[in-house]
Specification:
This is Tetratricopeptide repeat protein. This protein is an all-alpha fold. The chain contains 7 helices and no strands. It is globular.
Length: 132
C-alpha cells in the first residue's frame, strides 16, 4: 500500500513538472519567444504531452520559430486531439474549416468543434454558434 502511494505521488509530481515546462513554453510563446517555446515544447511533445503537442502545432501552423508547415501542424494537433485536448480538437476543426493542410471540409470541422465544445471549450462553441 505504501509503495502504491509513493508511486502515485511520483506520478503526480512528474505530471506537475511536465505541466510546468509546458507552461514555460506558453510563457515564451506569449512573449514572442517562439524559439524558446519550441525548446520547451519539443521534448515534452516527443514524450506525449498533449499541451506541448498542441503548442508545436501552433508554431508550425503560424510559422513562428519554424518554417510554416501545415502538415506538421496537423500531425501535432492530431496527436494532442487524440488524447482529448479540446484546444487541439478546435485547431483541427479550424484547419478543416479553412483547408489549412487538409482538404477543406465543413462537416469534419463541425465534428471537431463539437468534440471540443462538449468538453466546455468556449471558442469551439462560439464558432459553432456562428456557423449555424
Amino acid at each position: 500500500m505504501r509503495l502504491r502511494q509513493i508511486s502515485l505521488g511520483l506520478t503526480l509530481a512528474l505530471s506537475i513538472a511536465s505541466q510546468a515546462h509546458a507552461d514555460n513554453g506558453q510563457t515564451a510563446y506569449d512573449k514572442g519567444d517562439y524559439v524558446g517555446a519550441l525548446a520547451y515544447w519539443q521534448p515534452l511533445a516527443d514524450k506525449g504531452d498533449a499541451a506541448s503537442q498542441d503548442g508545436l502545432g501552433s508554431l508550425y501552423a503560424l510559422g513562428k520559430g519554424v518554417p510554416q508547415d501545415y502538415a506538421q501542424a496537423i500531425a501535432w494537433f492530431a496527436k494532442a486531439a487524440g488524447q482529448g485536448l479540446p484546444k487541439a480538437q478546435f485547431h483541427i476543426g479550424f484547419a478543416y474549416l479553412r483547408g489549412d493542410g487538409v482538404t477543406r471540409d465543413r462537416s469534419i470541422a463541425i465534428g471537431w468543434f463539437r468534440k471540443a465544445a462538449a468538453q466546455g471549450y468556449q471558442p469551439a462553441q462560439s464558432i459553432l454558434d456562428q456557423m449555424n
